[in-house]
Amino acid sequence: MEKPLLLLFSILASGYCNELPEISTSVVILREDLRIGEYAFQIVATDPDNDPLTYKIAGTNAGFFTVEEHTGIVTIKILLDRETNDVMTIDAIVNDGVYDDVRKTIYINVEDANDNIPIFNGLPYNEEVLENTTVGFVLFTANATDNDFGQAGIVSYKIDEVVPDDKDMFSIVATTGVVTLVGNLNFTEKSPFYQIRINASDGGGELYGEEVVQSSSAIAFITVIDVPDIDPQFLNLPNNAAVEENTRVGTTVFTVRARDPDTGVNDKITFSIDKTNASDLFQIDTNTGIVSVNAEIDREELLNISATVVLKIKASETMPNVNEVIASTIGELQISIKDENDNSPEFYECEGEACMKKDNFEGNVDEHSSTGLAIANLNIKVKDLDGGENSRFNLHLDGPDKDAFRVSPTSGMGESTVQVLVKDPQAVDYEIKQIMNVQIIAVDANADFTSTATVTIHLNDTNDNFPTFEKELYKEKVFEHCENGTIVATITATDADAFDEGKITYKLMPESIRSLFGVHEKTGTIYVTNGDTLDREVTKSYTLTLQAFDSGNNTGTTVVEILILDINDNAPEMNRDIYEAFVQENEDFKIQIQATDRDDPDPDTQNNIVQYRISEESSFSSNFSIDLEHGWLTNKGDLDREAIDISQNGVIQLIVIASDLGTPSLSSSAKVNISVGDANDNAPRYLDPSPYEFRVKESVKGIYVGPVHAHDADQTDFNNRIFFSITDGSFGSFIIYSEAFSKGYRGNITVDPSVELDYESNRKEYTLKVQASDLGQKSDVAEVHIIVEDVNDTPPEFPSGMILKVDENTTLPVPVDTIKGKDVDTNHSLIYELVSTKCQCNGTIGPCPEEWFIVESNGDIIANTEYVIDYEKCDVVFLTARVVDIYTEVGSNSSEGVVTINIVDINDNAPEFVFLQDFYVVVIEKVDTGTSVARAYATDRDTADNNKKTKFQVNKITFIGSEGNTTESLFLYADNFDQEDAEGRYTAYIRSQKAMDNNKRGKFMVEVEAVNGKLSTTGVVELLTVDSSFRVSLRFDRTVAEVNEALPQVRGILQSATKAMVEIFNVFSDSGNQRAEEKTILEAYFVFPNGSALDYDAVTSILNSEEVYKEFGQQLGQLGFTGISTTGNDPTGVKTEVYIMIGLMAALAIVLVVMTTSLVCIRRNYKRKLKASKAMNSAATVVIQNQKSGPVVPGTNKYTKEGANPVLNMNIDTATDLGFDEDGSSADRESLNSLDYNIDMAMAEKDNMPMMAIQEEEEEDEERSESPYIEPLGAALAQREKKRGADSPGLTFTNHSVDTTDL
Length: 1303
Prior knowledge:
Elements: H1 2-15, E1 22-23, E2 27-31, E3 39-42, E4 45-46, E5 54-58, E6 65-67, E7 73-76, E8 87-95, E9 102-111, E10 119-121, E11 125-130, E12 138-141, E13 143-145, E14 155-163, E15 170-172, E16 178-181, E17 193-202, E18 205-207, E19 210-212, E20 215-225, E21 233-234, E22 239-244, E23 252-255, E24 258-259, E25 269-276, E26 282-284, E27 290-293, E28 308-317, E29 328-338, E30 346-351, E31 354-357, E32 360-366, E33 380-383, E34 392-398, E35 405-408, E36 411-413, E37 415-422, E38 435-444, E39 450-460, E40 468-469, E41 473-479, E42 487-490, E43 493-494, E44 505-509, E45 517-519, E46 525-528, E47 541-549, E48 555-565, E49 573-574, E50 578-584, E51 590-592, E52 595-596, E53 610-614, E54 624-626, E55 632-635, E56 651-660, E57 667-677, E58 685-686, E59 692-697, E60 704-711, H2 717-720, E61 723-728, E62 734-741, E63 744-751, E64 765-773, E65 779-789, E66 802-807, E67 815-818, E68 830-841, E69 844-847, E70 853-855, E71 860-863, E72 876-885, E73 894-904, E74 912-914, E75 920-923, E76 932-939, H3 945-948, E77 951-961, ...
Parallel strand pairs: 2-9, 11-20, 22-29, 32-39, 41-48, 50-57, 59-65, 66-73, 75-82
Antiparallel strand pairs: 1-4, 3-7, 5-8, 6-7, 8-9, 10-13, 12-16, 14-17, 15-16, 17-20, 18-19, 21-24, 23-27, 25-28, 26-27, 28-29, 30-31, 30-33, 33-37, 34-36, 34-38, 35-37, 38-39, 40-43, 42-46, 44-47, 45-46, 47-48, 49-52, 51-55, 53-56, 54-55, 56-57, 58-60, 60-63, 61-64, 62-63, 64-65, 67-71, 68-69, ...
Helix pairs in contact: 5-7, 9-14
């Protein structure tokens, strides 16, 4: 019964077989701008049994999505961000209610949307630029990045705004963001700072179904630094000053003022006198500019410069300007020297224009000359060097004859011509006194100064009747500058003699006066001859002597005094066309305007009286007054710089008119430019009502908060410049920048670039006190209220200082370590990714040659099994990884860090030999105990000292010579160096433990082992020997000491001549020669680097060649060289020529013996050839397996082993012995040995030679010349090689490393 039930149950179970559902969705593409709750995709799954399915999702990225349990529709739960994760995976889980869950990984490719604005990097852009920076200078580079992909991630730049408005000052490269200066900066005339608003825009892209262009802006603040590029400016030069002569030394005359126009530099100004027309009279204080008297002033010594001292004053800055020179400017100060009455009148004798001071004069006059007649031959002039009224003087006569004469004029000013006139004709009587004497006394009219001149008058004896005038003195008048011919007066004389009536003629004296006045000879009418010269301002009056001559030439005289009347012919002259003055506003101002009128100060006229007034042309005329008579210009009240139109730059222009009181009145004018200095008398004032209120988002460094505005009424930049500062409430979180704008200055408040506001902190609001101050410390304060707005902004933290150690060659895929980041946000999800790797390879940091490590998304660092970690390639790996918070909303969602992985070296590299040369040449005779014969080099790629230190040891020595290969005892050893050389190689000298056998001809193969710990490498060092047969003896007729001294020079000449390396073996005296002078033998070897050497014949041939003899013969001769010997130790001194003769004779004898023997043995040769013919067949049938690979030994049926040199009869294998030697006689052996010619058995053509048929003896001689083989054995072996095939390799080779010919 149990068996049927079990069978029934099995049937029912097999009838109901439910299948698993199948998920067909594998890859999904989504845009990152899908909104939360928006449809993403649907998980497509089928169940063959049509069971109802339920859907779930799991995996790392499942938190971004929500799936509807029964439909499989997936919607967005958390916003996607392609820039954070462009490929996502979720596990789709489907269940049919019967079996366990079915899982499948769905790959989600996130497509880009233009959802990121360009973000500026490296903010803030604050640059300080010298105002003289050249156009084209790159100020900075604005850099913004857009995390979007493709065109939406390409950023372009432009300048939106420049404040002050000067867009032509800067340019920006649209593609690179390089900001360049394209205009000329000027701190003084333009602006001391600029604000540039830079716009960064992406290339545009789709966002939420629309094409949008994202952009952002940043403010760059450019501060212009003033440089000293403007020369100093005088404030009150050029100008005039006056000082009296004899003023006390040190008295202040004038104060020079200057300033530095570079207001941002405001360098100190120093003063000096650059040039003057009167040296050492004045000095200037370097710092204050005060001009003072430096030495005693004598006005009369300065008359050659019109008593006006001109000072060229230099104002210099203290520090060098931009051109590395001291900037300076020069202004002019004219100092008029006022006169002091300190000179007495003096007498001069003048001849034309030349005058000489004199106090004794002589003249003559006729007796009883008329009253007023001038003493003849007197040229007396009185001069008083003082000026003006101080030069006025009075004249009178004194002395024994003073009553007989009088002086004319009796007074004068400055200078005057003086005449002595007859006063009492009766007293002038030749019969009483022939010589008369008077003294002319000149007395200063204003001081107690007198001078005396003695006049000696010689009387002439004349007739008694003379023409006489009605008056002794006539006073006449005429206007200055009258027309030529103007009649002054008609004066006539009478003569008592009746016959002289109507015959009187007239003449004016002195002759010099005739250039101004003339007289009609017949009528006595005096007229003007040069009216232009008559100038009241130069000479007020002229005194003439009018002479009347009768027929007897008797003369009567009278004095005519002509007064020059003044006319108003000189307008007042302003001392300067333009007066420059400076006054600080709110201060008193005073400057003297000076004009001079050259009209004579005649009390009867007012032609030279000057009065001053201010022209009404200026709008500021009412603000000033001027003294009518003295020209002192002053301000009526305080001057306000702010009342002046700003375009005038603080300068008030007045016109001052100077007029005289003559008829008609004449006038002139001068401009007065008054620079009103700006005083800081206005405080800044805010333009907006306080308080200001702004809102700002947290976590953005340097974000712009908002502006405050203020204005200062002062006009100059220095006084109206406003600087904003936050005095309270900032807590170090905000900064403010000042910039000018059209209405004043703006204070831009930004978050400190080094500070991020944190809404989560206890400061969500700030109340700032912002102070607007000018340079005069005047200020105003405004209150600014700032509200911080919250954003999700905290990035995760990457662990710092993470250093790992990993052994090289590590291959296990287990985590080396795990990166564990931190995030203060409570809602965060951290993933990790590898950013880049750099490696330190051979001491240089750069890209890694291979990616040795992998960073898993969970932070595990594992070794990449695709590569082998090799310390010798790189010893440090700098792994840059990123920790990403996928829930970050705003700001950076990641941070990067560096994990330093130190690769630990293990000893995994064996030493490697370095062969610097193929072989070493050894002169056997020179080898002794400890002699170095070679050197071994090796490197080790390991780095640690204990892993790469290498030692050498000699394991085996094999000698290859003419007798074959022999293994030598270890007479060589390695002398190791403990330290590496400069090239990183370990070295050892191969030294000999004993003297080497002089008969060794060949080479030593030295097997050297380089050992490093358990690792080692073997190399072979090849030594080529040179024996005593190549020793060459050179003869010198010098002493041993002299030859040793010249040894370097001898070696150098021989090496140049032979091109070989010269090894000096011995130098000794040739004591065997019984000569008066000592001879010396020098033994040497001439060795080439390839191991070959020159023998006696070769050296002789070279040194005896014409070319070498011309170049080096004379040099060797000067060193005592006389010839060459084969050996230098032959005591008999036999000449080389004797040995040559003996050798030739011996050779001839040998030739004769050989010929005789050949004739005797010719028959045996035939027999031997027949044997060779038979042997040919046997040789051809030798089994190829028994053949040896070495070449045939010529003349035998034997082979060498392993390619040995054919001349070395070594290790003959008996299997290849054809038995030719068994029955052969000695003659046969000799004949066979004759095959040892220089025939290269390896030549291809020998392998291909045809086998020649053996013919009869009589035919052999005829064909021998055509056959390439001279013996039957050669033909037999050639035939055998032919049968083996033309393609078979030859059995011989040429060993170029050991050339017995060279040795």
